[in-house]
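Exercise 7.
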Amino acid sequence: FSWCGSSLKFYFLYVTHQVGGVKSVTLPESLLFVSTLDGSLHAVSKQSGDIKWTLREDPIIQVPVYLSEPGFLPDPSDGSLYVLGGKHKEGLMKLPFTIPELVQSAPCRSSDGILYTGKKQDVWFVVDPETGEKQTSLTTSSSDSICPNSRLLYIGRTEYMITMFDTKTQELRWNATYNDYSAPPYDEKQDYKMAHLVSSGDGLVVTVDRESGDVLWSQNYGSPVVGVYLYSGDSLRHAPHLSLAMETLRFLTFSSAHDQADAHSTLKWSYQFVKEQATAQTQLVPTLYVGKLDSHLYASTSLVHHGISLVPRGLTLARIEGPETSGVTVRERGECEITPSTDVRYPLGSINSKKNHWLLIGHHELPPIAHTTMLRDFPGTLQHSGEAVIPPRPHASSASPFQKVAHGNSDTNANRGGVDGRTSEKAESPAAVLPVYMTRDLLTLAVLTLLLAGWLAFALTYPTVTQQVKAQRQLEEALESRLQRMQANIQTGTVVSSDTILSTHTNLSSDSLPASSDPPPSPHTPSHSISDVMKNGSSEHNLTLEGNGEEVQVGKISFTSTEVLGHGTAGTFVFRGRFDGRHVAVKRILPECVEVAEREVQLLRESDTHPNVIRYFCTERDRLFTYIAIELCAATLQQYVEDPTCFHELNPITLLEQTMCGLSHLHSLNIVHRDLKPRNILLSVPNALGQVRAVISDFGLCKKIPDGRSSFSLRSGIPGTEGWIAPEVLRDTPENKPTAAVDVFSAGCVFYYVLSSGQHPFGDALRRQVNILSGEYLLSHFMEDIHALDLIEQMISAEAESRPSTACVLKHPFFWSPEKQLLFFQDVSDRIEKEPADSPIVVRLETAGRAVVRTNWRMHISVPLQTDLRRFRTYKGNSVRDLLRAMRNKKHHYHELPPDVQETLGELPEGFVNYFTSRFPRLLMHTHTALHMCAHERLFHPYYLPPNTQ
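Solution. The predicted structure, written as tokens, is:
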């Protein structure tokens, strides 16, 4: 499970392409940018709030549905963390660090046995400023070319990923992803005429004139607002805005508009208050709002007036003796929702939860700062005190204009700690002061850190390094310099190889360097030392390290070092090259991975005779690397799904069938792929006839199962990619050893991914593997496509023995053409024509037949066909056999039918079959299942796998 949070850091730039260069163009000052919790960035009119365009990304936060102890709640505005539960059931508490700070400090380990790992990655979105359409994304590993445009908008985003692993329970405690788009603070010297008030519970935004207090406009954007931005000077900047409870916002706006005739009567109020409540002395209290978006919980600071009930500090769970009230509604997931202006009371028996804390959805008193020991090794460079770890946002300090509008008396509120939740928290909470014992711990840690740093500096500078290690370092520096130049000069091509599917998160420089210590020599590699290479030199090596685009020749393989097609872990690179006069992809592998490379080559040699398995050509070696020449392909299946317009002539069902043919070939050789996913299925370059093949690639994790065995062990680790791994691989129990069925499971997920245009049957990437383990999937895209639904449900079954073999999958009606479907219906009708009504075949066919024929099939066919059927014989409308008989007879006598009946039925075979299957969508699958008892008969061999081969 993970969540994505966002305190947005936008870098916007308009670019005009000219012959003479690039120049900046001013962004229209009439636009505001509103970021909402569901991941949308709305460009709206500053005068009316109307949406001009919307850029949609992943939700700002995504958190676990299951809250373990302790459970974490993120603040989507700045990445702060709140913890629920804990060892002493303390209730909600604020942690003194944020997600970016956790990532900066990782890898680290806390005193209670929690391991933290972190990762940071940047990306740029290139957007058309007129329409909001995203043109491309720019990352460290890719820079897709885009069509020239006079103006482009660049949006920068930083992604922080943190994982918490509990060494005591050997379980993943929490997994979080935080997207940080930020903008420079607003220049307070400029006089901003408007005040933006946003609702913490829904998407309402009310914009008020600061001087007059008039409501200028109000809009509801459908999801809570987490950021408001305006364009000022040369960049997007935070616009001053204030978060209030949705009831408070409606109350205050209603009050301020009360005496303005009907100027703002179009506003709709959820809660009406009497006039006496809306006085100039209205006081706002800072609170922590705990909200829920879909199944995700979040927490954010919010201001409320005294008409809103608050959950007391430290209380998240009902006392067992608490009286019941209708004001608190307990939902089925365990959360409670409180209606405004009611006392906080709790339903009886609400603590019958052993694992999870129940958390009230609503406004809580500001929690104290947690004196946590979770980061005893927190870096000294990061702020670690009771004060706000992230400084107050610019708009928070400029809250006084809101006081003037909403309250009419800013001085009174200032005496109460102000309307800023952070300021009030610091003033009211004694826990915000750092305890003395923590100060002593930090001082001790600082002294120990200095001593350790001095010792390390001495050890590193002591001249005991051998010449061989020096040479190794020189080589690494040369490699790093060369790879950096390559990264800067990479040009995106339209052709990719099997290794473009490798992780885009891999850092180019670090992953491409050899290990710092010499790896043990492999029996399959030359025994030249690093120092020998540096002394003696090699023309090939010199070209590789120092060349500027020169062609590298290693045996029969040649390539240009700047034409990089892809790269992956352990320093693997893939270049565009040539072998024996043909274009190929050249995979360059470090010596440490030579054994893996040789196993991959061996399996490729054994399996590449099949047209749907990537073709292997040659292996060459020099003193530093192993080079493998493989088939050059046009795209990955993932690229096909993400941009089908570039491959509109390809049939997705045909590609899936070819994939299964290749997988079936591997299984026939006792080879299990173990890492099947859309990025490992490639689309070949069109041949002379324009035909494209789907081919299976990347055999790095393949396993050859010895004869006489059907399963493989996991001694070398769990193979595959998270989200595509079969459940039995993760469980690894003695009674459920992984078999070739793991590939069928992955293929089922790929089927759904392709047919649903990029969706996954087990949900988004954050919860995918957990849902796989629990067997929770959703095939909502195939509620009407019964054939695809039936096949995919079988393939992704949680029980490996329930999944069909690859050969059975290829026999499934999902792949049948209209002609084959019509032949099947005809063969079935011929087979059962003389069978008595009580024969097992007919009984099986008619079982549950009413749903197939929709009670009476004659009522669902067109009038001309009904009339024609009555001319010759009588058909039973509730019989599946009679429906098949009618189809067979009309097919046999199609050319003798009246013109109006032929027009109704359509052309043979496609129109004819579609006429019946569209009216009776269950007919094909029902008939196929019923006649499975005849699979051994020669007549049905084209439609079923013989029983002895299943």
